């Protein structure tokens, strides 16, 4: 009997097993490690905005937290942000032109999408999020996300796709 069992185990071991799906910058999950411009970050949380085909990741490297926004279009557009302290009482207060630290930012896009959130983040799962993307003449970025009276502000820059890679996945 043990000979038959060994033979069947040999046949089973030769069967192809499905491979894990390849990790992409648009499919990261909490616990994954990503390297951006030679700094390694752990994905602490993420929010997917399916209506606008983008994902917002909260990244952590020691005490440093960054936000990576990956948008899918003809190619990937990567934006890396730092949180900016601020307050916004009403959604209609966001102007088309914003000046922050002497830099003038112009409204590039305004979007709305429900958020699908995993992990501790400033957004709530399932609720609509209003997003404003501003850009300066020298390609610096200013982003506002508003959901249910809570606001997140980010100052950032574009990151080239070749400067970001996945180090390890869950």
Descriptive report:
By secondary structure, the chain is mostly beta strands. The protein has one domain. The protein is 8% helix and 54% strand. It has one helix at residues 2-14, and strands spanning 33-36, 39-49, 54-61, 64-72, 76-84, 97-100, 103-114, 116-118, 128-136, 140-147, 150-159, 164-168. Strands 1, 2, 3, 4, 5, 6, 7, 8, 9, 10, 11 and 12 form a 12-stranded antiparallel beta sheet that branches. The radius of gyration is 21 Å and the shape is elongated. It starts with a helix and ends with a strand. The mean pLDDT is 87.
Write the layout of secondary structure elements.
Elements: H1 2-14, E1 33-36, E2 39-49, E3 54-61, E4 64-72, E5 76-84, E6 97-100, E7 103-114, E8 116-118, E9 128-136, E10 140-147, E11 150-159, E12 164-168
Antiparallel strand pairs: 1-2, 1-12, 2-3, 2-8, 3-4, 4-5, 5-11, 6-7, 7-9, 9-10, 10-11
């Amino acid at each position: 009997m043990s000979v038959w069992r060994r033979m069947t185990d040999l046949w089973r071991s030769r069967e192809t097993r499905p491979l894990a799906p390849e990790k992409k910058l648009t499919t990261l999950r909490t616990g994954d490690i990503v390297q951006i411009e030679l700094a390694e970050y752990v994905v602490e949380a993420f929010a997917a905005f399916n209506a606008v085909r983008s994902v917002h990741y909260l990244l952590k490297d020691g005490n440093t937290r960054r936000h990576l926004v990956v948008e899918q279009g003809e190619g990937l557009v990567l934006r890396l942000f730092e949180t900016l302290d601020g307050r916004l009482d009403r959604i209609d207060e966001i102007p088309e032109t914003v000046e922050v630290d002497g830099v003038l930012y112009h409204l590039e896009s305004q979007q709305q999408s429900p958020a699908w959130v995993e992990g501790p983040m400033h957004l709530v799962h399932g609720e609509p999020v209003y997003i404003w993307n501003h850009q300066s003449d020298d390609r610096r970025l200013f982003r506002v996300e508003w959901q249910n009276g809570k606001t997140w502000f980010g100052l950032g820059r574009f990151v080239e796709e070749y400067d970001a890679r996945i180090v390890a996945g869950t």
